[in-house]
Protein backbone atom coordinates (compact mmCIF):
# COMPACT_ATOMS: atom_id res chain seq x y z
CA UNK A 1 0.00 0.00 0.00
CA UNK A 2 1.32 3.44 -0.98
CA UNK A 3 0.65 6.57 1.08
CA UNK A 4 1.20 10.29 1.05
CA UNK A 5 1.50 11.53 4.64
CA UNK A 6 1.20 15.21 5.54
CA UNK A 7 1.78 16.15 9.16
CA UNK A 8 1.52 19.87 10.03
CA UNK A 9 2.18 21.35 13.46
CA UNK A 10 1.48 25.05 13.97
CA UNK A 11 2.17 27.37 16.89
CA UNK A 12 0.63 30.82 17.35
CA UNK A 13 2.08 32.99 20.09
CA UNK A 14 0.32 35.79 21.98
CA UNK A 15 3.61 37.70 22.09
CA UNK A 16 6.66 37.36 19.81
CA UNK A 17 9.24 34.60 20.32
CA UNK A 18 12.77 35.96 20.09
CA UNK A 19 14.58 32.63 19.76
CA UNK A 20 13.73 28.91 19.64
CA UNK A 21 15.60 25.64 19.27
CA UNK A 22 13.73 22.54 18.09
CA UNK A 23 14.17 18.85 17.29
CA UNK A 24 11.81 17.19 14.79
CA UNK A 25 11.47 13.40 14.51
CA UNK A 26 9.06 12.87 11.61
CA UNK A 27 11.31 11.20 9.03
CA UNK A 28 10.21 7.63 8.17
CA UNK A 29 13.03 5.09 8.26
CA UNK A 30 13.36 2.53 5.44
CA UNK A 31 13.09 -1.08 6.57
CA UNK A 32 12.44 -4.44 4.96
CA UNK A 33 8.72 -3.62 5.03
CA UNK A 34 8.75 0.15 4.56
CA UNK A 35 10.03 1.84 1.41
CA UNK A 36 10.49 5.62 1.49
CA UNK A 37 10.13 7.33 -1.87
CA UNK A 38 10.48 10.90 -0.61
CA UNK A 39 10.44 13.06 2.51
CA UNK A 40 10.39 16.84 2.84
CA UNK A 41 10.33 19.12 5.86
CA UNK A 42 8.98 22.64 5.36
CA UNK A 43 9.50 25.14 8.20
CA UNK A 44 7.97 28.65 8.21
CA UNK A 45 9.65 30.99 8.98
CA UNK A 46 12.65 29.35 7.34
CA UNK A 47 15.52 28.66 9.76
CA UNK A 48 18.02 28.86 6.92
CA UNK A 49 19.84 25.75 8.11
CA UNK A 50 18.80 22.39 9.47
CA UNK A 51 21.00 19.51 10.60
CA UNK A 52 20.16 15.80 10.72
CA UNK A 53 21.56 13.15 13.00
CA UNK A 54 20.71 9.47 13.42
CA UNK A 55 20.15 8.36 17.01
CA UNK A 56 21.10 5.01 18.54
CA UNK A 57 17.77 3.48 17.46
CA UNK A 58 18.12 4.49 13.79
CA UNK A 59 15.72 7.44 13.90
CA UNK A 60 16.54 10.66 12.06
CA UNK A 61 16.32 13.77 14.26
CA UNK A 62 16.30 17.15 12.51
CA UNK A 63 17.52 20.16 14.50
CA UNK A 64 16.88 23.80 13.69
CA UNK A 65 16.93 27.18 15.38
CA UNK A 66 15.11 30.46 14.72
CA UNK A 67 16.97 33.48 16.03
CA UNK A 68 14.67 36.16 14.68
CA UNK A 69 11.45 37.43 16.22
CA UNK A 70 8.35 35.51 15.10
CA UNK A 71 4.73 35.20 16.23
CA UNK A 72 3.92 31.97 14.38
CA UNK A 73 5.75 28.73 13.55
CA UNK A 74 4.64 26.04 11.13
CA UNK A 75 6.37 22.67 10.60
CA UNK A 76 5.08 20.41 7.82
CA UNK A 77 6.49 16.94 7.13
CA UNK A 78 5.43 15.41 3.80
CA UNK A 79 6.35 11.81 2.98
CA UNK A 80 5.57 9.25 0.32
CA UNK A 81 6.01 5.65 1.45
CA UNK A 82 5.10 2.10 0.51
CA UNK A 83 4.17 -0.42 3.22
CA UNK A 84 4.79 -4.03 2.23
CA UNK A 85 2.82 -6.97 3.66
CA UNK A 86 4.64 -9.33 5.99
CA UNK A 87 4.19 -13.06 6.07
CA UNK A 88 4.39 -14.61 9.54
CA UNK A 89 4.24 -18.29 10.49
CA UNK A 90 1.28 -19.79 12.32
CA UNK A 91 1.06 -18.45 15.87
CA UNK A 92 1.92 -21.82 17.40
CA UNK A 93 4.89 -22.36 15.06
CA UNK A 94 7.11 -19.60 16.48
CA UNK A 95 9.87 -19.94 19.05
CA UNK A 96 8.76 -20.09 22.66
CA UNK A 97 9.02 -17.11 24.98
CA UNK A 98 11.60 -19.00 27.03
CA UNK A 99 13.77 -19.69 23.98
CA UNK A 100 13.80 -16.01 23.02
CA UNK A 101 14.61 -14.98 26.59
CA UNK A 102 17.44 -17.50 26.92
CA UNK A 103 19.09 -16.63 23.60
CA UNK A 104 19.18 -12.92 24.44
CA UNK A 105 20.30 -13.43 28.03
CA UNK A 106 23.01 -15.95 27.02
CA UNK A 107 24.11 -13.67 24.16
CA UNK A 108 23.75 -16.51 21.67
CA UNK A 109 21.19 -14.54 19.67
CA UNK A 110 23.07 -12.77 16.84
CA UNK A 111 21.10 -9.58 17.49
CA UNK A 112 21.49 -9.48 21.27
CA UNK A 113 23.55 -6.28 21.36
CA UNK A 114 20.93 -4.21 19.52
CA UNK A 115 18.11 -5.83 21.49
CA UNK A 116 19.48 -5.38 25.03
CA UNK A 117 18.55 -1.65 25.39
CA UNK A 118 14.89 -2.67 25.15
CA UNK A 119 15.09 -5.01 28.17
CA UNK A 120 15.56 -2.41 30.88
CA UNK A 121 13.85 0.56 32.50
CA UNK A 122 13.49 3.79 30.50
CA UNK A 123 12.31 7.31 31.37
CA UNK A 124 8.60 6.49 31.02
CA UNK A 125 8.61 2.76 31.83
CA UNK A 126 9.81 0.99 34.98
CA UNK A 127 9.59 -2.76 35.40
CA UNK A 128 7.45 -3.93 38.33
CA UNK A 129 5.97 -7.13 39.71
CA UNK A 130 2.50 -5.72 38.98
CA UNK A 131 3.21 -5.47 35.26
CA UNK A 132 4.76 -8.95 35.32
CA UNK A 133 1.79 -10.40 37.17
CA UNK A 134 -0.71 -8.94 34.72
CA UNK A 135 0.90 -10.76 31.78
CA UNK A 136 2.48 -13.81 33.43
CA UNK A 137 -0.31 -16.32 32.71
CA UNK A 138 -0.38 -15.28 29.04
CA UNK A 139 3.36 -15.00 28.42
CA UNK A 140 4.54 -18.33 29.79
CA UNK A 141 8.08 -19.59 28.97
CA UNK A 142 6.85 -22.69 27.16
CA UNK A 143 4.31 -20.83 25.04
CA UNK A 144 5.04 -19.86 21.38
CA UNK A 145 5.87 -16.17 21.42
CA UNK A 146 3.52 -15.09 18.63
CA UNK A 147 0.60 -16.80 20.34
CA UNK A 148 1.56 -15.25 23.68
CA UNK A 149 1.87 -11.74 22.23
CA UNK A 150 -1.47 -12.05 20.46
CA UNK A 151 -3.08 -12.99 23.78
CA UNK A 152 -1.46 -10.09 25.64
CA UNK A 153 -2.45 -7.68 22.90
CA UNK A 154 -6.06 -8.87 23.15
CA UNK A 155 -6.03 -8.68 26.95
CA UNK A 156 -4.97 -5.02 26.92
CA UNK A 157 -7.59 -4.25 24.28
CA UNK A 158 -10.26 -5.96 26.41
CA UNK A 159 -9.29 -4.59 29.82
CA UNK A 160 -8.49 -0.98 28.94
CA UNK A 161 -10.97 1.69 27.92
CA UNK A 162 -10.02 4.14 25.19
CA UNK A 163 -10.63 7.57 26.70
CA UNK A 164 -9.02 10.74 25.34
CA UNK A 165 -9.84 12.63 28.53
CA UNK A 166 -8.41 10.10 30.97
CA UNK A 167 -4.72 10.78 30.40
CA UNK A 168 -2.34 13.41 29.08
CA UNK A 169 0.87 13.09 27.08
CA UNK A 170 2.92 13.04 30.31
CA UNK A 171 0.69 10.71 32.34
CA UNK A 172 2.83 8.00 34.00
CA UNK A 173 2.42 4.49 32.62
CA UNK A 174 1.56 3.18 36.09
CA UNK A 175 -1.33 5.67 36.37
CA UNK A 176 -2.85 4.52 33.07
CA UNK A 177 -2.32 0.90 34.09
CA UNK A 178 -4.00 1.32 37.46
CA UNK A 179 -6.95 3.21 35.94
CA UNK A 180 -7.30 0.77 33.01
CA UNK A 181 -7.87 3.64 30.60
CA UNK A 182 -6.02 5.95 28.22
CA UNK A 183 -5.08 6.26 24.55
CA UNK A 184 -2.78 4.44 22.14
CA UNK A 185 0.35 5.87 23.77
CA UNK A 186 -0.71 4.50 27.15
CA UNK A 187 -1.65 1.08 25.80
CA UNK A 188 1.69 0.77 24.00
CA UNK A 189 3.54 1.74 27.18
CA UNK A 190 1.61 -0.85 29.19
CA UNK A 191 2.45 -3.59 26.68
CA UNK A 192 6.14 -2.69 26.76
CA UNK A 193 6.17 -2.50 30.58
CA UNK A 194 4.59 -5.94 30.90
CA UNK A 195 7.01 -7.59 28.52
CA UNK A 196 10.14 -6.01 29.96
CA UNK A 197 8.96 -6.98 33.43
CA UNK A 198 8.98 -10.57 32.14
CA UNK A 199 12.48 -10.19 30.65
CA UNK A 200 11.37 -9.95 27.02
CA UNK A 201 12.69 -7.15 24.76
CA UNK A 202 9.96 -4.70 23.75
CA UNK A 203 9.99 -1.25 22.19
CA UNK A 204 7.64 1.65 21.52
CA UNK A 205 6.69 2.53 17.94
CA UNK A 206 5.27 5.85 16.78
CA UNK A 207 3.67 6.27 13.39
CA UNK A 208 0.35 6.57 11.62
CA UNK A 209 -2.71 4.43 11.04
CA UNK A 210 -4.74 4.57 7.88
CA UNK A 211 -8.32 5.36 8.81
CA UNK A 212 -11.29 4.27 6.73
CA UNK A 213 -14.18 6.77 6.39
CA UNK A 214 -17.71 5.60 7.21
CA UNK A 215 -19.52 4.04 4.27
CA UNK A 216 -20.86 6.70 1.96
CA UNK A 217 -18.75 9.45 3.55
CA UNK A 218 -15.80 11.33 2.08
CA UNK A 219 -12.41 10.99 3.72
CA UNK A 220 -11.76 14.11 5.82
CA UNK A 221 -8.44 15.68 4.81
CA UNK A 222 -6.28 16.46 7.85
CA UNK A 223 -8.50 14.57 10.30
CA UNK A 224 -6.16 11.62 10.81
CA UNK A 225 -3.94 11.27 13.89
CA UNK A 226 -0.58 9.99 14.95
CA UNK A 227 -0.67 6.47 16.36
CA UNK A 228 1.45 4.26 18.59
CA UNK A 229 1.89 0.56 19.26
CA UNK A 230 4.46 -1.87 20.71
CA UNK A 231 6.99 -4.13 19.07
CA UNK A 232 8.34 -7.40 20.49
CA UNK A 233 11.59 -9.13 19.66
CA UNK A 234 10.55 -12.65 18.62
CA UNK A 235 13.95 -14.25 18.03
CA UNK A 236 16.52 -14.05 15.27
CA UNK A 237 14.27 -15.74 12.68
CA UNK A 238 11.37 -13.29 13.00
CA UNK A 239 13.05 -10.24 14.51
CA UNK A 240 10.74 -7.47 15.67
CA UNK A 241 6.99 -8.03 15.30
CA UNK A 242 4.51 -5.16 15.86
CA UNK A 243 1.21 -5.39 17.75
CA UNK A 244 -1.52 -2.74 18.08
CA UNK A 245 -3.40 -3.11 21.40
CA UNK A 246 -5.67 -0.16 20.61
CA UNK A 247 -7.17 -2.10 17.71
CA UNK A 248 -6.44 -5.68 18.85
CA UNK A 249 -4.42 -6.64 15.79
CA UNK A 250 -1.05 -7.44 14.34
CA UNK A 251 0.24 -4.38 12.54
CA UNK A 252 -0.11 -4.63 8.78
CA UNK A 253 -0.21 -2.42 5.71
CA UNK A 254 -2.54 0.07 7.42
CA UNK A 255 0.22 0.88 9.94
CA UNK A 256 3.03 3.23 8.91
CA UNK A 257 5.94 3.27 11.41
CA UNK A 258 8.02 6.43 11.73
CA UNK A 259 10.29 6.02 14.75
CA UNK A 260 11.12 3.46 17.45
CA UNK A 261 12.44 3.92 20.97
CA UNK A 262 12.38 2.68 24.52
CA UNK A 263 9.25 4.76 25.14
CA UNK A 264 7.54 7.95 23.95
CA UNK A 265 10.30 10.17 25.32
CA UNK A 266 12.68 8.79 22.65
CA UNK A 267 10.38 9.55 19.71
CA UNK A 268 8.60 12.84 20.52
CA UNK A 269 7.61 14.22 17.07
CA UNK A 270 8.53 17.83 17.90
CA UNK A 271 10.22 19.18 21.00
CA UNK A 272 12.18 22.31 21.83
CA UNK A 273 12.55 25.45 23.87
CA UNK A 274 11.64 29.07 23.13
CA UNK A 275 12.10 32.48 24.71
CA UNK A 276 8.99 34.64 24.92
CA UNK A 277 5.73 33.67 23.28
CA UNK A 278 3.22 34.40 26.03
CA UNK A 279 0.42 31.84 25.79
CA UNK A 280 1.08 29.63 22.74
CA UNK A 281 -1.74 27.94 20.84
CA UNK A 282 -0.92 24.57 19.25
CA UNK A 283 -2.75 22.97 16.32
CA UNK A 284 -1.94 19.69 14.58
CA UNK A 285 -3.23 18.34 11.27
CA UNK A 286 -2.41 14.82 10.02
CA UNK A 287 -3.44 13.43 6.65
CA UNK A 288 -2.74 9.81 5.64
CA UNK A 289 -3.85 9.54 2.01
CA UNK A 290 -3.63 6.21 0.12
CA UNK A 291 -2.19 6.56 -3.37
CA UNK A 292 -4.29 4.38 -5.62
Concise account of the structure shown:
By secondary structure, this protein is of the alpha+beta class. The protein contains six helices and 14 strands. Helix content is 19%, strand content 38%.
Q: What keyword list fits this structure?
A:
292 residues; 5-stranded antiparallel sheet; 6 helices; single chain; alpha+beta; 38% strand; 14 strands; 7-stranded antiparallel sheet
What does this structure look like?
With 292 residues, this protein is an alpha+beta fold. Helices cover 19% and strands 38% of the residues. The chain is built from six helices and 14 strands. It has helices spanning 97-105, 112-115, 129-135, 145-159, 173-179, 184-197, and strands at 2-24, 34-44, 50-54, 60-66, 70-83, 161-162, 181-182, 202-209, 226-233, 240-244, 249-250, 255-261, 270-276, 281-290. Strands 1, 2, 3, 4, 5, 13 and 14 form a seven-stranded antiparallel sheet that branches. A five-stranded antiparallel sheet has the order 11-10-9-8-12, covered by helices on one side. Helix 3 (129-135) crosses helix 6 and helix 5 (173-179) crosses helix 6. It is globular. The protein starts with a strand and ends with a strand.
Shape category: globular
* Order of secondary-structure elements: EEEEEHHHHEHEHEEEEEEE
Strand content: 35-45%
Total helical segments: 6
Given helix and strand content, the structural type is alpha+beta
The tally of strands reads 14
Average per-residue pLDDT, rounded, comes to 95
Share of helix among residues?
A: 10-25%
Poorly predicted spans = none
Give the termini distance in whole angstroms. 8 Å
The largest pleated sheet is described as: 7 strands, antiparallel
Radius of gyration: 20 Å
Amino acid sequence: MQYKITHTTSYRYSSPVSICHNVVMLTPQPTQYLQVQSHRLNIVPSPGETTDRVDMFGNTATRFALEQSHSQLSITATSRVTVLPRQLPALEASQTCGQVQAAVNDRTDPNWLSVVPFLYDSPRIQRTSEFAGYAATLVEPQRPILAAMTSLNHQIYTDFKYDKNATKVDTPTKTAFDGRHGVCQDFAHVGVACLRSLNLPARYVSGYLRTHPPEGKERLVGADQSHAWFSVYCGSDLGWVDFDPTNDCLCGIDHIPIAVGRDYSDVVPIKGVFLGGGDPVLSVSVDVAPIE
